[in-house]
Write a structure and sequence with these properties.
The protein has a single domain, classed as TIM Barrel (Alpha-Beta Barrel), CATH 3.20.20. The protein is built from twelve helices and 13 strands. The longest helix is centred in the middle third of the chain and has 18 residues. It starts with a helix and ends with a helix.
Length: about 325
């Protein structure tokens, strides 16, 4: 049913408009017990105690979560839980509201089963996200993707990340430093030692003052092995809990869709192999000292299992959910 609806309706809508409609639908359906029951009955896999995993002291119903970028404002968590996701990462959340980059800023690449986005962290700010979370029942673990506002200088970036953490700490089970989006000018420089050590120290200091919760770093797939090594060393030095591997890529290698020339981060099937290689590299280098969340090109159970076999302890998907629809979780968890 969803492939028909996608081909006949959604593909003809602006991608961002289609996304907004999906969020609104899940927000409305998730607002009532009856609506959530309908979603669970139609789309969610049956709960299976054998699939429960514990990572960082947090129990997850299974390994598959929704990556940051879908529920940017923490609006539809109950609806997403009803679809069967094992956890959801909200955001990326910035301290203050900002519009993001000019539209159009999301592009479908159907021939490549991919998306390009240059959103630029649009959102209503941390206080608005907190207001949503205060009204939201805790149904599954929630991760919060921390970001900085576009106008904040890199030298003051730590202040933004700490402000969002201060505001949303009670509502997140774990937190991710998004320092690898290609759509905020110079943000990826935060992955370099000149900025990263200070950032990690500041955020971890804030975390310890509030109460310790797992903190992760989301890295770019375009890093060199030497750059990844440096990040891993700093992560261990600052007692970071894990790595999210990976964010979107600037590479356009092997694409066929006309939209490949658009600027922004590429996600989806073309990222599958690169992210898996990086996961395996991290696991081989440091063993189980850092938990890895594998992200990139997950469309089915085989893709999910490849991430786990490479060394991930959890996985997240985004583009596969967009292309495969609301039965995505059931599809991925079923061998």
């Amino acid at each position: 049913m969803y492939p028909f609806f996608y081909r006949r309706v959604l593909v003809h809508l602006d991608p961002e408009r289609a996304h907004t409609l999906a969020v609104d639908f899940l927000r409305v359906m998730g607002a009532s017990a009856a609506g959530r029951a309908v979603l669970r009955r139609l789309f969610a896999p049956r709960p299976d105690p054998r699939q429960v995993v514990e990572v960082w002291g947090i129990k997850f119903p299974h390994v598959l979560g929704l990556a940051g970028g879908f529920d940017k404002r923490a609006e539809c968590l109950p609806g997403l839980a009803a679809l069967g996701f094992g956890h959801v990462e909200i955001g990326t959340i910035t301290p203050r509201p900002q519009p993001g980059n000019p539209r159009p800023r999301v592009f479908r690449l159907p021939e490549d089963q991919a998306l390009i986005n240059r959103m630029g962290f649009p959102g209503d700010g941390a206080a608005a996200a907190r207001a949503h979370l205060e009204r939201t029942p805790r149904l599954i673990p929630v991760a919060v993707s921390l970001g900085k506002n576009k106008e904040t200088a890199l030298e003051r970036a730590a202040e933004d990340y700490c402000e969002v953490l201060n505001t949303l700490h009670p509502y997140g089970d774990f937190f991710t430093l998004n320092i690898s989006s290609p759509n905020t000018p110079e943000l990826r420089r935060l992955q370099t030692p000149a900025y990263l050590s200070e950032l990690l120290g500041a955020v971890q200091s804030t975390m310890k003052r509030l109460s310790p919760k797992p903190l992760l770093i989301k890295i770019a797939p375009d890093l060199t092995w030497a750059e990844i090594d440096t990040i891993l060393d700093l992560a261990l030095q600052h007692q970071i809990a894990g790595i999210v591997a990976t964010n979107t890529t600037l590479s356009r290698e092997g694409l066929h869709s006309p939209a490949q020339s658009e600027n922004g981060g590429l996600s989806g099937l073309p990222l599958r192999e690169r992210s898996t290689v990086i996961i395996r590299y991290i696991r081989d280098r440091i063993g189980d000292k850092l938990g890895i969340i594998g992200v990139g090109g997950i469309f089915n159970h085989t893709d999910l299992q490849q991430k786990l076999d490479a060394g991930a302890v959890l996985v997240q998907a985004y583009t596969g959910f967009i292309y495969r629809g609301m039965g995505f979780v059931k599809r991925c968890l079923r061998p």
